[in-house]
């Protein structure tokens, strides 16, 4: 293979992660109408030199019928981050999601105290 693997500095990786999180703010949970970042559904983002991104997310309920829709929306949103050439979305259930993971914005929008 003639492609060279690009090696990023820690600062560049952090910048890419920040832009990934901005892109994830465009992914809206269809049932709640709030983005997955403010809902606290994005648990972990790992970016590797060469453009591979592994993202660990959860859903508000196990067995959510919209898992495929949200995953597809994530993959589409990742197209806005040019450094990322491949994204692997892993659905995790631990730790279990609860409303304490939500941002203040999401709590206000959903009327949760």
TrEMBL record:
<feature type="domain" description="MIP18 family-like">
    <location>
        <begin position="18"/>
        <end position="89"/>
    </location>
</feature>
<dbReference type="InterPro" id="IPR052339">
    <property type="entry name" value="Fe-S_Maturation_MIP18"/>
</dbReference>
<dbReference type="InterPro" id="IPR002744">
    <property type="entry name" value="MIP18-like"/>
</dbReference>
<dbReference type="InterPro" id="IPR034904">
    <property type="entry name" value="FSCA_dom_sf"/>
</dbReference>
<protein>
    <submittedName>
        <fullName>Metal-sulfur cluster assembly factor</fullName>
    </submittedName>
</protein>
<dbReference type="Pfam" id="PF01883">
    <property type="entry name" value="FeS_assembly_P"/>
</dbReference>
């Amino acid at each position: 293979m003639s492609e060279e693997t690009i090696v990023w500095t820690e600062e560049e990786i952090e910048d890419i992660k920040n832009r990934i999180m901005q892109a994830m703010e465009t992914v809206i949970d269809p049932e709640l109408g709030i983005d997955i970042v403010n809902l606290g559904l994005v648990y972990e983002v790992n970016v590797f030199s060469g453009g591979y991104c592994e993202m660990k997310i959860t859903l508000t309920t196990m067995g959510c019928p919209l898992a495929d829709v949200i995953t597809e929306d994530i993959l589409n949103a990742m197209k806005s981050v040019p450094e990322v050439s491949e994204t692997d979305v892993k659905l995790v259930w631990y730790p279990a999601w609860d409303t304490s993971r939500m941002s203040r914005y999401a709590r206000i929008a959903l009327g949760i105290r």
